[in-house]
Amino acid sequence: MFHQETHDGERIEGLIIEALQEILTGQDAERFIAWAQRRVPEVLRLGEAPLSAAEIRRVATLLAAAIWRATPRPDRDFQTVPLLAREDAPCPCGSEEPFEACCGRTDELPDLSSDVIWELLLAELSERELQRALALAVVPDHLQAKVAERWLELDHPLRAVALLEALLGQPDAAHAELALEVLCDAYDRLDHWKKKRAFLTRMTRSDERTLRGAAWRRLSAGRLDEGDFAAAHEAFVQALRQTPDDPALAFLEIALLTAQHRDEEARRRAELWRYRLVRNGLDDEDILTFLGQAAADPQEALMTSQRPVLDPALIRLHDWLRTIATRPVPRHRLTPLPLGQDEAPSGQLELFSPDEVPARRRPYELPGTEAQLRPGAGLSRLETAWHQVFKAAKPFSTDLAPADDEHAWIGGDWLEFLAHHPEAGDSLDVLDDLATAIFSHPESALPWVVRALLPPLLERAAAIVEKAVPRASSRTIPWRAARNQPALRLLFRHYLYLIEADRPGRATAVLEDLLRLNPRDNHGVRADLMNHYLRERRDDEALELARRFPDDRLADLIYGEVLALYRLGEPERAAQALDLAVGRLPSIPAYLTRQRIKPPQPPRWPSAPSGEVQAWLYREAMRDVWAAEPGILAWLKRLTA
User: Which domain holds residue 168?
Assistant: First the structure.
């Protein structure tokens, strides 16, 4: 029944549009009625109804008269025109009665408002006619947003802003919700973010509840895009108070929760929203379908719902990544890397300076333990072909983005390459390039884009590395071998993603893998690993980590050793470690013991962080852990006074 009513409505709307086009061509009344008597029965399938020929002519004439009388005529300054001038003219339906006594009776005409005609007419007017209608002030206020929407589609945002700012400045803004949405889109197009935020803040004080709700919703969405989740949540709550039944808030809440990796909560809220909207009689299939999908997989639901507006290249990459997830995990070979061999290209940086390398040779530095990852011959040839189509350079050293980070998306040959080569998903080199490309895309700022694309890629990379160098293996894959760098960069990205997803346990395991595989620690993960150990009260492991790097100068390592020893009930050894730590970084005790302290001035030129900057960064990262340990800050202050 619903689908039948939908089709009937579409046929009637299409018929009205055809009628408007006929009227606008300048047809007179008699010719228009003749057209209607021929066309209306065809479109509405009146021949299938139990009607006589006379009744069909009468229905067609009545509908034509209603459309004609409701249509503003551009050639008459958008005034309506009577269908027939003479009152005694015979009715064109063939009844031989006067028109005004037959099909011209207003109580017999179908109910067709001028607003409906205006909305359809706007799409048929030329730009010149539209401008004249606005100048004559005949376009209904509530449809001016439609005009602005049309201008925005034609890439005339300034016109849209000028029209809607004047409209929304009127005291009566009851009709202005669509205008608010279009004006915000126009501000976005012009990058007038300050003006947009000021406008929305003003609208939150409107007398109209729906307008207040829409303004809070847009403010929440803007804060979400900026990654300010606390402000986004606060604005969302305000929007919910104003318009609790707004279906758009359902989408916004799911997006806000998934952006914070609160997927389980997002699933529950999707179910509740769907139940509530259905109970309230909502029949919007798009939002209901989205909520149904979000109850199962909110990240995927957001990506799917945004397909019409996302870059098609991202959609193609997303679909390809889902395809390769089903492929078996390949095995990469390990070949020995002789000590001293340097395969890294010139310009690669080492985190250790020569005097910081531990003096004692470690077990992982014994000849034969260091190796490099090598794909099979077929995959190696595929990687060579890949770099012919993927033109972006690798990031410099341990950076995660190349200098020209937009170059990856110039041209789409590499997407075509992936479509023809699903086995490219077996290559760590290719996966590394794809991770770099994802973050370089402008739409990666949308939280659900990265959430949908990155996890399957990183999880596959981690599985490939684990199969090649299992945790029980004594082999390492040092950064100095260029072939190992994609794997290590992918693992580091995986760690960063897991931290952002608030999965510290899994993140700690990835850090342990990185340090096991690359003991020289070019990414400096030992600092983060030490802090994770201390937060998890794994003090023995923290102490062992500090002993692996006895000459380290990272604040996290040298002061982490002090905290671990203190917790393990060894105050004398802790005091000795503190003497060494203060000798290397003397500023840190003051930054830890003071409840309030100003941050240091950043250096004027890029350089290694100063002692003051390191002290501030360490305070930001770990002071809460120190402060939670009874007596340690007083002990620290006493020993360093």
Answer: 140-305
DSSP 333: E
- The DSSP letter of residue 329 is P
Q: How far is C-alpha 208 from the chain's CA centre?
A: 30
Q: Is residue 531 part of a domain?
A: no
Distances (CA, A) of 12 to 43, 55, 320, 638: 8, 18, 42, 86
Same domain, 471 and 457: yes
Give long-range contacts, CB 8 A cutoff, 24+ apart: 166-173: 167/141, 168/199, 168/203, 170/141, 173/206, 173/207, 173/208, 173/211
Same domain, 57 and 149: no
Beta bridge partners of 476: 370
277 and 151 in a common domain? yes
> CA-to-CA distance for 500 and 261, rounded, in angstroms?
8
Q: Which DSSP category does 397 fall into?
A: T
Distance from the Cα of residue 148 to its chain's centroid: 26
Please tell me which residue, 175 or 401, carries the higher pLDDT value: 401
- Cα Dmax for the chain: 116
Distance CA 117, CA 609 (A): 68
Closest CA to 38 of 15, 8, 69, 21: 15
**What element of type H or E holds 149?**
helix 141-153
How far apart are alpha carbons 180 and 351 in whole angstroms? 52
Please state, in angstroms and rounded to a whole number, the distance separating the CA atoms of residues 342 and 186: 54
In this structure, which amino acid lies at residue 396?
F
Q: Quote the Cα angle for 85-88-89, to 5°.
A: 65
Q: Give the pLDDT confidence of 432-459 residue by residue, as tens digits.
A: 999 999 988 888 877 778 888 999 999 9
Q: 357 burial class (0-12, 13-18, 19+ CB within 10 angstroms)?
A: exposed
The pLDDT value given to residue 118: 85
Token readout for 165 is 């700012």
Report pLDDT digits (tens) over 530-552. 999 999 999 999 999 999 998 88
371-374 and 333-336 strand pairing: antiparallel
Domain check: are 111 and 158 in the same one?
no
386, 430 Cβ separation under 8 angstroms:
yes
Higher pLDDT, 174 or 471: 471
